[in-house]
Specification:
The protein is mainly beta. The protein has one helix spanning about 50; strands at about 10, 15, 35-40, 45. A two-stranded antiparallel sheet has the order 1-3. The longest helix has 4 residues, at about 50. The chain starts with 7 loop residues before the first strand and ends with a helix.
């Protein structure tokens, strides 16, 4: 199991974050204003798919 590390991706309206770029639920795009990329860990839960990696 890997340890979460930056960058982190999350949808602003969601309560989970992603740190695996290969996560199928990570739909981050720099052109999509609903998603945010940050180097500081969001105050949200880790997504289950990222957590299992």
């Amino acid at each position: 199991m890997s340890t979460p590390s930056a960058p982190y991706y999350h949808k602003k309206s969601s309560d989970t974050y992603h740190w695996e770029t290969s996560c199928s639920q990570n739909n981050y795009s720099s052109s999509n204003p609903e998603w945010e990329k940050t180097n500081s860990k969001p105050n949200k839960e880790q997504c289950n798919q990222c957590q299992s990696k």
